[in-house]
Amino acid sequence: MLWATFDIQAHPRRSTAHVLSWVLFILCIAAYLRVSEVRHRENSEDRVTPSSAQLFEGIRSSVLQPAEEDSEVVDNSASWTQRVRHSMLWKDTVSSGRRFFISLTLLVPAVLIGMHIGLFPYVGAFFLRFVLFFDKIVALSLLPILFIVFGIDEWSKIMLMVIGVAPTMILDTYQMVKAVPREQVVKAFTLGANNIDVAYRVVLKQILPQVINSLRLNLKPLVLFLFAGEMIASTDGLAYRIAIMRRHMGMDIIIPYLLWVALLLYSVDLALRLLNKRLHPWY
Amino acid sequence: MVPCKRARVGHYKESRVFSRTPVARFLLVVSVAIASVAVCVLPANAAERPTFTVGWSIYAGWNPYYYMARSGILKRWADKYGIEIKVQRFDYAASLDAFVAKNLDACTMTNMEALDMPAASGVDSTAIILGDYSNGNDAVLVRNGLSFSQLPGKSLMLVQKTVSEYLFERGMVLNGLQDQLSKVKLINTSDSDIVPTFLSNSSNQAAVTWKPLVSEILRDKHVTSIFDSSKIPGEILDLLVVRTEVLRRPDGSGERFAKAISGAWFETMSQMAAGGAANQAISGSAAASGDSVESYREQLSTTFLFSTPRSAVDFVRNPGFKQKMDLVRQFCFQHGLLGQGVRSVDDVGILYPDGTIHGKKERVRLRFDVTYMQLAHEGKI
C-alpha cells in the first residue's frame, strides 16, 4: 500500500502536495536552529551561526539603521522612511539592482546576435567560431583587463556580467533557431515574407518563450558575476557589504542578506515566468 | 539473480517485494561504504599522541612556520613533548574562519584580527608568541606626490576593515586631519587584484596595501609612499594565537604544545638572525611564498622580527604596549568590528601579563601570555 504513494501515476491531494513542498524548508530551518542552539550553549557569543534573536537584530539594524557611511546624514529623529532609504539594505539593493538590470538589458542584443547567427549564413560564418571559443574563456580571469579598459567604476562590473553570460545566451539562442523546422522558413518565403519578416515574425516569435526560460536559468550566473565584481572592487552593493561583514564574521547580517538576495532573484524569476505565461500561452 | 528471475514469472504481489531488492542492495553497499570509512577514520586519532594543528598564511613574518616544519625543527620539539604538531597553510581570511570555527588549535594573525575575529566572536584566545611587528610592511601609496591634506574628496583603494584602514586612519590622525576622514571615499578592493587595478588607471589616486604588493606598486615611478607602518612601530603586531581552552586542557597537552611551538619558533628565529649569505632559514622561508631570497630579505627589512624571546617579552611588558592595543581596540569598536550588538568597547576584554585588563573583567576574551616566551628566554623548555 505504502509503495503506491511513490507510483508515477499517483495523484497527491492539493493540500498534501502543499504540505510536502514545505517539508524541506522546515527541516533546513530546524537543523539550523538546532546547530545554532548547540553552538550557543557552548559559546553564548558565537557568531558563526547567529541565533534567531541575533538574526532579528541584524535584520533590524540593516533595514532601519543608517549605513555606516551615512550615519552622519541621518539622525535619530528622522522618519522611518528616511531611515529605510539610508539603511544599508536599501542602498545596497538599489546599487546592485541597477547593475543587474543594466546588464540584463545588455543581454537583449546577445539574443538578437544569436538569432542572426542561426539564420544568416554570413553572420554565422563571421561570429560562430569566435563565440564558441570566447564562451570557454573564464570571464573572471579577464577582470584585470576589464579594470584597465573600463575603469573600476560601474562599467567593469557590468561588463563582467555581460561577458560572462552573453556567450551562453548567444549559443543557446543559436541552438533554438537551429531547432526551428527549415520548412517553416521556406514556407514563409514562398508566402512572400522578406528576411526581416522571417527573422523577427516567424523565428524570433516562436523561440521567445524558450529564450525567456534560458534567461531564467542564467539569472544565477549573472548574480554570481555581479557578486564577484562587487567583492573585488566597490564602494556599495549587496556583495560589497557581505565582503565587509566577512571581515569580522558578521553572519547576523550576511545570512539575512543572502536570504534577501535569494528572495529578489526568486521574484525576478517568478516575474519572468508569469510574463512568459502571459505572452505565450501557447507554449 | 535467481530472485529476479522468479519475480518476473511470479504473481503481482510477489514481484513488488522483489523489485525492491536492487534498492536494498544499493542501500547495503552505501552503508557498508560509510561504515568502512568510519572505521578507517575514527580510531586513527584516538590511539595516537595528541595532535595540534597550526594554521599560517603567507606573510614575511609567518613564512618561517613553513621552514620550521620542513626543516624538522618543529618535529624535534614536538617529539620532546610527546605531541604531534601539524602546520597548514591557508589564505588569511580562511585561516581566521577556521580558527573561529575551532577547526584549528592555533593560528597566526595580527593583533587587530585577534581582537575582532576570535575574541569578538566569544572564542577565548591567548597570544603566546609575539613574532614581529610591521615596520614599514604596510604603506599608504599615492600618485603624483599627493599629501594627506589633499586626500579628502579623492578615492582610496584598500581592503576595508583591516590593518590597511587602521594605518590610513592613524596617518590622517597624526597629520591632524581626523575630522576630514569621512571625506575620503574608500573603495573596498580585494588584495588579489589591487595591484593591476591601481596601476591600470592613472585616475586612481591613492591606495593602502602591504608587502610584497607595495613593492610591486612602487615600481611605477609616479607612485610614492607617504606613510607606512614604521611611523607607528609596534601597533600592527603579528601573533601566534591559541584557543585558551586548548591551552588549558586538563591533561596538560595544551601547555606542552605551547612550550614545543615556542621552543621551535625561537630556535628558528635565532637561525634567521644568524646572518650569512647562505642562511638556510631565510631561503627556506622565502620558498614558503615562492619569493626570491632577495625579495624576501627586502620584505624582512621592513619587518621587525623579535629574534630573541627576551626582546618579545620586554616588548609586551612595556607600558606603551597597552596604549597601542588601546588604539587598536578603539578602532575596532568605532568600525563595528566587535559586532553589531556590541555597545561598549569594554565588552571584549583584553588581559595583559601584569594582570591589568582593558575592558570588563568578566568578559576577557584576548589574553597576552608571555609565560612560554619567558620560559624560552630562561632556557627552561
Task: Write up this protein.
- The complex is a heterodimer of chains A (283) and B (381).
- Chain A has 283 residues and is mainly α.
- Chain A folds into two domains: 12-46; 84-279, MetI-like fold, CATH 1.10.3720.10.
- Chain A is 75% helix and 1% strand.
- Chain A contains eleven helices and one strand; from the N terminus they run H-H-H-H-H-H-H-H-H-E-H-H.
- The longest helix of chain A is centred in the last third of the chain and has 38 residues, at 195-232.
- Chain A is globular and about 75 Å long.
- Chain B is of the alpha/beta class and 381 residues long.
- Chain B folds into three domains: 2-47; 51-134 and 235-378, Periplasmic binding protein-like II (D-Maltodextrin-Binding Protein, domain 2); 138-231, Periplasmic binding protein-like II (D-Maltodextrin-Binding Protein, domain 2).
- Chain B has helices spanning 2-9, 12-19, 21-47, 64-70, 73-80, 92-100, 111-116, 163-174, 194-200, 213-218, 244-247, 253-273, 280-288, 293-300, 309-317, 319-334, 371-378, and strands spanning 51-56, 84-89, 106-110, 125-134, 138-143, 155-158, 185-189, 206-210, 223-228, 237-243, 303-305, 349-351, 357-358, 364-368.
- In chain B, strands 1, 2, 3, 4, 10, 11, 12, 13 and 14 form a nine-stranded mixed β-sheet that branches. In chain B, strands 7-6-8-5-9 form a five-stranded mixed β-sheet.
- In chain B, strand 12 (349-351) and strand 13 form a beta hairpin.
- In chain B, helix 12 packs across helix 17 (371-378).
- The longest helix of chain B is centred in the first third of the chain and has 27 residues, at 21-47.
- The N and C termini of chain B lie far apart (68 Å).
- Classes of the chains: A mainly alpha (283), B alpha/beta (381).
- Chain A binds chain B through residues 3, 43-48, 54, 57-58, 61, 68-69, 72, 143-144, 147-148, 151-152, 231-235, 240, 243-244, 246-250, 252-253, and chain B through 16, 93, 97, 100-101, 116-117, 120-123, 155, 157, 160-162, 182, 185-190, 192-193, 196-197, 200-201, 203-204, 335-341.
- Strand 1 of chain A pairs antiparallel with strand 7 of chain B.
